[in-house]
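Below is how a single chain appears once it has passed through the pipeline. First comes the sequence as given, then the structure the pipeline wrote out for it. We keep one example in the README because the format questions we get most often are answered faster by looking than by reading.
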Amino acid sequence: MFNFFVSDENRNGNSFLISGKDYNHIKNVLRMNVGDTFFVSSAGHSHLCALKEFLTDSLIAEIVEENCNDTTLPINIILFQGLPKGDKMELIIQKTVELGVSEIVPTEMKNCVVKIEDKKKDVKRSRWQAISEAAAKQSKCNFVPEISEISSFNDVLKRVKDTDLFLVPYENEDGILSTKNCLCEIKKGMTVGLLIGPEGGFNDAEIEALKAAGAKTVSLGKRILRTETAAITAVSMCMLYAEMMVEND
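Resulting structure:
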């Protein structure tokens, strides 16, 4: 079933007003008819709605069931991603949004191969945000994860203290046991930060600065992973652990 994101300002009692590209998609691409149902996500909640009426340039979706289809994880996962080259960032955004991250922070680091010019940063971010929205729709998220402004490594260091747990998958960390122990620290409602290094890996000084700030280095196994594989693997482990917490309640 399709899912659309609507501002809470567009809610009027028991219905939503849908306009713009979603209106066009519903009417002209999906060719939905009055009575057809779909999900509408607004203010972090998902509602089962039925198409009630087509207007000139908008439509009215009536709520059939409120607060259903909750796919939000019981933890907040913030992915800090060292800028990768090519279109790898698009793949990372798509897959980690599907897995349940709440925010992605593209991060400039010492060994980043790619350097994005200031004048191109807003264009990149807009493109990445659109990918996040598409992935959120596809995976029926209750909200669209934010793609933050491209941040410096020092900016990320300052955000370590704002998380309950900050993990750094690091190729020189020995043993997967450290990862298991860190995952066992996760509790419902926590904010977990994950910093993934770029293709060039972490600079030694960056690792030391992260540890001093309170971050914990962990292992993702004995193999050297590409940055996009490391991001998807790390988020997957946190997601699975969070889902198991729900199942065990």
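The mean pLDDT is 90.

See the next section for the split statistics.
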